[in-house]
Specification:
This is Glyoxylase-like metal-dependent hydrolase (Beta-lactamase superfamily II). GO terms for molecular function: hydrolase activity. InterPro entries: Metallo-B-lactamas, RibonucZ/Hydroxyglut_hydro, Sec-metab_biosynth-thioest. Keywords: Hydrolase. The chain has about 325 residues and is an alpha/beta fold. It folds into two domains: about 190 residues, Ribonuclease Z/Hydroxyacylglutathione hydrolase-like (Metallo-beta-lactamase, Chain A, 4-Layer Sandwich), CATH 3.60.15; about 120 residues, no CATH class. The protein is about 40% helix and about 20% strand. It has ten helices and 15 strands. The strands form three sheets. The chain has a seven-stranded mixed beta sheet. Strands 8-9-10-11-12 form a five-stranded mixed beta sheet, with no helix packed on it. Strands 13-15-14 form a three-stranded antiparallel beta sheet. β10 and β11 form a beta hairpin. α7 runs antiparallel to α8 and α8 packs across α10. The longest helix has 26 residues. The chain is globular.
């Protein structure tokens, strides 16, 4: 654990699985109430590290608020354990629109899972091996990570200010990665806790398979705003290290998505017919048509979501056609 700013502490949880990004825990310790930004997975080791951090800093759980940037399992998994000990949880109520979020559809209930598989072109009839593999793997994921869970929280919306001793944090919208993701901006000291909006090393997923939501467009517009509004800030993401050059990282992510859009547009032009999201994604990302193994099934579903987001973005820009038959969405140049 290290003190990265006056009375702001960071602990990082690393994982042996290279497919799991390290998690940064942040705790602002103040007289009276203290503030934690997000939690982590509902793993025993994660709880030991998080609770060890709270207790080492002498913070009472009953005097602890937990601000949730967005409702993903690696950010909310330990919320119930903290609430049982007396902590309060704050979150943007827009995050309860779980239907918009791919992760909640696969880690929620079977009906949502089947519907989302059908959306991208995976059905028990047409692609039985892939369908059965995903259904089986989700059951295993339940056992390892737990189902997506609901929890009580204090509604906290963009535009509000949260005061903790010497710090005043503005709640700011960072829509795109999820429908209602928010960050905490300390204007006086130039600090921004940005959740998963921007990070080094990888391109954050825009995880939606819902029509006409326009999340990728929202995401790119938000990144464009970040380059100007927070150019001089110390930006603290929940994964990997602090952002040293926000313009560079924002441009990298935006160009990454635009490059994929161009590749997918070319795939549709070459095919000339209607293609499912999965078929476009398989070709765009160089994946096999067959079922993934368990280690790669999450990345497989993420690829479908990224592909859907890119195609939906191009549809909104008038670059591709969209058609729906029996719950399956098809795309054409």
């Amino acid at each position: 654990m290290q003190e990265i700013y006056h009375n702001i502490f960071q602990e990082t949880i690393s994982y042996s699985d290279r497919h799991m990004s390290p998690r940064n825990l942040y705790l602002i310790r103040q007289p009276g109430r203290s503030l934690m930004v997000d939690t982590s997975f509902r793993f025993e080791r994660d709880w030991e590290i998080l609770s060890g951090m709270v207790e080492a800093l002498g913070v009472s759980y009953k005097d602890l608020d937990v601000f949730i940037t967005h409702d993903h399992p690696d950010h909310t998994g330990l919320v119930p354990a903290l609430q049982e000990l007396g902590a309060s949880v704050l979150m943007n109520p827009e995050e309860t629109r779980k239907r918009a979020d791919l992760l909640h559809c696969y880690l929620a209930d079977e009906e949502s899972r089947v519907q989302n598989l059908r959306t991208v072109g995976v059905t028990e009839k047409d692609t039985p091996e892939v369908y059965q593999a995903i259904m089986e793997y989700t059951g295993r994921a339940y056992a390892e990570r737990g189902k997506a869970q609901d929890f009580s929280f204090i509604p906290t919306c963009p535009g509000e200010t949260l005061g903790y001793g010497e710090y005043g944090f503005d709640v700011v919208s960072l829509k795109g990665h999820t429908f209602g993701q928010c960050g905490l901006y300390e204007k006086t000291r130039g600090l921004l806790f940005c959740g998963d909006q921007i990070m080094t090393t990888i391109v954050p997923i825009v995880g939606s398979q819902q029509k006409d939501l326009g999340l990728l467009k929202c995401y790119m517009e938000s990144l464009g705003d970040m380059k100007h509004r927070y150019a001089d800030c110390r930006i603290l993401p929940c994964h990997y290290g602090p952002i040293e050059d926000v313009e560079k990282e924002a441009n990298r992510i935006i160009l990454g998505y635009l490059d994929k859009c161009e590749i997918m547009k070319r795939i549709l032009e070459e095919d000339r017919g209607f293609m499912t999201t999965r078929d476009v994604g398989v070709r765009a990302y160089g994946r096999s048509q067959g079922p993934p193994d368990y280690r790669h099934f999450v990345s497989c579903t993420q690829i479908w979501a990224k592909t859907f987001s890119c195609l939906e973005f191009m549809y909104g820009e008038g670059l591709v056609e969209r058609n729906e038959r029996e719950g399956i969405i098809y795309w054409k140049s």
